[in-house]
Amino acid sequence: MKTFLVKYKWTILYWLIYSSIVLFFAPRQKDYYLDNDISLFKENSLTPILMWTGVTMPFLVLLIVLAKTKSIKQSALSFLYGAITVALFLFFFRDLVLTGSLFINRQFKRATLEKTYLADYQFGVEQTKENFNLYDISAKQLLTEKKLINRLYHPGLKQNDTLTLKFYKGLLGIAFQAQPFIAR
Questions:
Q1: Model's pTM, two decimal places?
Q2: CA–CA separation, 169 and 112 (whole Å)
Q3: How far apart are CA 63 and CA 72, in angstroms?
Q4: CA–CA separation, 35 and 168 (whole Å)
Q5: By three-state DSSP, how is residue 45 classified?
Q6: What percent of the chain has pLDDT over 70?
Q7: Fewest Cβ atoms closer than 10 Å to its Cβ: which of 43, 66, 80, 173?
């Protein structure tokens, strides 16, 4: 047993760190953000970053190998291997890149912002949490996001009551809460 542990200690350590990141660290990062803000970040920033990374990394490998070997055939083969490796890596680990970005965003608070919402209940039904929606005044749209509803709903809210929630803008410009949204 001892020889096994000594022989594979770095592999075991790697898998312990990787498992803790995937199972504990990564899922908790999304708790600080609204789902809409995460999808906007993925669409507007993360996808282009991943695409540019996926394009530039194989070209860097191509240039380095071409400069060292002066062989076009070997450089093209290295480019192909590099492109496939980077594409697979980015495809399989894009969620880890996303959660890493969300974590980095929370580490540096650049500004605060307050979002104001109006309480909105469905017409003609009982005013309960299940019938509760929020109207975002600045975006002029009705929101049904569960995290936000769980945070802001409390019994006694009337139609068109104004609710304010404080957010921080992080390094990457994504709004987040100081405390995670808690599902009730």
A1: 0.76
A2: 6
A3: 10
A4: 15
A5: helix
A6: 99
A7: 43
User: Which is it for strands 141-143 and 175-176: parallel, antiparallel or unpaired?
Assistant: unpaired
Query: What would the mean pLDDT of 129-152 be, rounded to a whole number?
Result: 87
What pLDDT shows up at residue 174? 93
CA atoms of 157 and 122, how far apart (whole Å)? 13
Q: Which two tokens stand for residue 40?
A: 């906007």
Question: Which residue ranges make up each domain of the chain?
Answer: 2-106, 110-176
The band of 126, judged by pLDDT with boundaries at 50, 70 and 90, is: confident
Phi-psi region of 98 (alpha: psi -120 to 50; beta: other; left: phi over 0): alpha
The answer to whether residues 64 and 131 touch, using CB atoms and an 8 Å cutoff, is: no
Give dist(CA 174, CA 132) in Å, integer: 26
E-strand stretches of the chain: 111-121, 132-136, 141-143, 162-169, 175-176
Strands 175-176 and 162-169: antiparallel
Check the CA dihedral 145-146-151-155 and report its sign: positive
